Amino acid sequence: MSAVERYLTLNSRDLRLELEELYAAYAACLDEERFEEWPDFFVEQCLYKIVPRENFERGLPLATWLCESKGYLADRVTAIRKTAVYAPRYVRRMVSGLRVLGWKEGMLEVRANYVALETLQDELTRVFNTGQYRDKLVVEEGRLKFKEKLCIFDSLLVPNSLIYPL
Amino acid sequence: MGARHVWPPEGISRIPYWIYSDPEIYAREQERIFSGPSWSYVALEAELPRAGDFKRTFIGEKPVVVVRDQEGAINVVENRCAHRGVQFCQKHLGNAAEFMCPYHQWTYDLKGNLIGVPFRRGVKKQGGMPADFDPKNHGLRKLKVARRHGVIFASFASDLEPLEGYFGPSMSALFDRVFDGRELRVLGYSRQLTPANWKLMFENIKDPYHASLLHVFLVSFGLFRADQPSKVQMDATGRHGALISWRGDQKKTEDHVDMKSLIDNFKLQDAALLEPVREFPEYTVVMTTLWPNLIIQQQSNTLAMRQLITRGPAAFELAWTYFGYADDDEDMTRRRLRQANLMGPAGFVSIDDSEVMKFSQAGVGPYPEGAGVMEMGGRDWKDEQHMVTESVIRAFYSYYRQVMEI
Lengths: 166, 406
Prior knowledge:
heterodimer, B: Naphthalene 1,2-dioxygenase Alpha Subunit, Chain A, domain 1, 2 domains, four-stranded antiparallel β-sheet
């Protein structure tokens, strides 16, 4: 049985467990600032966007953060590591309310809520960004990877700068 | 002004730090600059295409509503009910036949005229407004409005010069370069709250000196370098300014020794971000600052209005409206959206700015007795054919001091 067939025939409980594990691993990768590993959660031809909810709801195409390929994700990591100037911070992501919408055209559609908490050195921890993941996953190299990940955020007024991925 | 508000004797080559944190100065700015005889940017006409379309925004910290009426005219009114001051409009954008304050349902037409007061004649002959109460005297306060090629400006002052004279010839020409009369298309919004005084944002965009040093990303990809052809331009008053640059032949030269941030072998894995097409004549980048609240961004193919909204002495909101033209093809729209990655709260380039502005406020706020040294390129202000200068910042403060009388 191929990996794709295995996933297609997984019962919903097992699929859900795999997804819970994947989303936990994704958050941990970013929370622990292992940014170099982040692009590997995606397939080569992918789409990653962080979009203000007002743009999303009005059908306006502008994203606050747009990556149209895995290479693009890697470029963002290079910027975080080498070019961007910013104050030290911790960001912790909470993912909950995972909903598996099912397979559609070979892609697994998943939604979840997320909250990103930001801690700066001289300030109390604050809710930095919150919103919904709207994701499409495919099977590659025997495991589920993101083909598309949209972070639609409610927190329209961004507290200064969005540096680390969500 | 108190004794502590004495500008250093060196004049505009020093910027006293009390101007970034003092509540008295902030209050005076609201009164003299944002509510004074200046044209503040409020909206693009493309945001309000139909009758009844409105946008809720701010001038300084004062809430206003921009609305298109049934005749197609644009009105700007205070977002404050004439009755008890309630900020009646709470949606960023929308469409309405009239505005009704939720508190006592006073109702206004799209020009701001009061057209309804519940229980005006009382209930069962009891109560009601006095017989001589005239709704004509209780409309929303209307601001003066000026439009140029799809861009809307407003002013609290009743007597001020027309927009063309206000811009002056050099700024009008740069303005018309992007706003040439073509219909605009809004691509989206971005909003950020920066914990810094609003003037630090203007200083940043009026300062070409920092760009080739702070912005490693820009420098590494040759998007902006101190050795590329460039100039700075101002209007006759110094209140408006523009940083202009274009692509030239750049080689690694001795000047780069000072640019420690240059990474020679840095390559993007996905180069689509940096594939602009020549769209405007002559210049590749024009960043225009228009007194008192607007930055017009033309960085290659990414176009945006950055509107400054003050939130107290130590914070400002930057409201970005990205746009293109109604006749853009798909490729051009995609290019604009890709290059938007350079700017905004997550911009490859502007992250550096918003973070550094915060660091600035953290340094100048607790030391009001200190002063910044603004001597790069001289101590006066004038147009220059290079970017190794703080001339545009000095020009800004030259005008600022006149308006503020400090």
